[in-house]
Write a structure and sequence with these properties.
Strand content: 15-25%
Structural class: alpha/beta
CATH topology of the largest domain: Rossmann fold
CATH architecture of the largest domain: 3-Layer(aba) Sandwich
Distance between the termini: 84 Å
Oligomer: single chain
CATH superfamily of the largest domain: Vaccinia Virus protein VP39
Amino acid sequence: MSAPPSPFGARAIALRVLRDSDSGREYAADLLEKELEDERVSALDRSLATALVYATVRHRGTIDRILDQFSKVETAQMEVEMRWVLRLAACQLLFLEKIPAYAILDEAAEQAKRHRNKKAGGFATGVLRALQRAIVAIEPDGPPRAAEPGPENEKQWPWTVMDALHQRWPDLPHRRLVPIPGGRRAILDRDVWPDPEHDPVACVAQMLSHPVWLVKRWLARFGAGATLAAMEAGNGHPPMAIRVNTLKATKERLVERLRAEKVEVDEGRMHVSHTGALWRLGSFKDGWFAVQDEAAQRVVPLLKAQRGELVADLCAAPGGKAAQLAETGARVVAADSELGKVKGMARAFARLGAPVTLVLADAKQPPFGRVFDAVLIDVPCSNTGVLARRVEARWRLRERDVRVLSRIQRRILDAAVAVTKPGGRIVYSTCSLEDDENGALVREAIREGNGLNLEEELRILPGPGAPCGGYAARISLLKK
């Protein structure tokens, strides 16, 4: 009799995490982090479990549509465990390399049997074998194309989506195509997506695993070409970006040290690749760098903080932008409403040697007078610009949440105005692509006549070379 599988294997961990996240009470990323704290999990299983969880969540919409073509029971009607067993296996068949199909099917059958019975194992095997036979090819794919925002006329959606598909994948059967991040694509033996001429929103939403309501918004605002580019970027695997801490090192010294620590470094963009945990590196412990997305790094320079100025970051956690502000020589006050996050920032600032004053405070009601020369508010948002990093956000977010968030964001902006000196500056930023949270909100505040002036805007739409996007605006207050 064979021994039961180890509970510390990658697929066992991934299935537990995915199953337990199904209720929505906890994020898969948080559950995974807890699982990987166990020292009995090998380095190889840590890496594979992480890849399995993130890929399965990221491509869930695509996977469900495909599975429904091969199962008599729709995924939405399956028991939770069976649903995730099949999703996990289908993800490996389509989106992950170097895992033999027989191993994927055998493991899925065993997981289904342990969950229910031998018959359940047979059901899982039947569905997955049908899918395996339907994969005609997995082949190299051309690079995504950058695209300018297109027409906002809803009547042009069918034409613009068809055109965008033909531009991106010329001479291919689009309804049988499964884009795979990293430069590959799968071709199936049957149509699985809705006809892009008759239902373009559903077609690209399912093909590229984004919620229909979000795709509809993006098509209306950006057009089909830019929307496809943003969706592909949201499904990608963004590189690890770091920022040199100029309080302790130069870029040249940091690069030299990282390479001595066996870290691959793209010196131009400061992207790093390392098989181990970055926090174990001596250069990290010594505070020579911070992990920070490239789009996020572009926000602080917009504030134009000067040496000696009193500057506040009212939504500061996890502290990357506040630390970046401290490097300018400004006197920085960083606030957040959660004690745990404030303590986390204290540790980060100590590591970086960043002279930042920490305050436990609600950004909607900051306990300050009109004392700051400049204020940064990186407000809570929908995260639609950073779906590549926050893979669960697309499935947790609802369209009504954008409206709720915009009301909170406006309260924070009004609070920032109230603590900024006349003639001072505010930078309002989000990692969202939604105009309700960005330009429309800022312009509404300015129209209301509070002595505000829009000086500069920064919009980043995800696409080739920009895995993450967002928005920032510098607003000045009139002198009195």
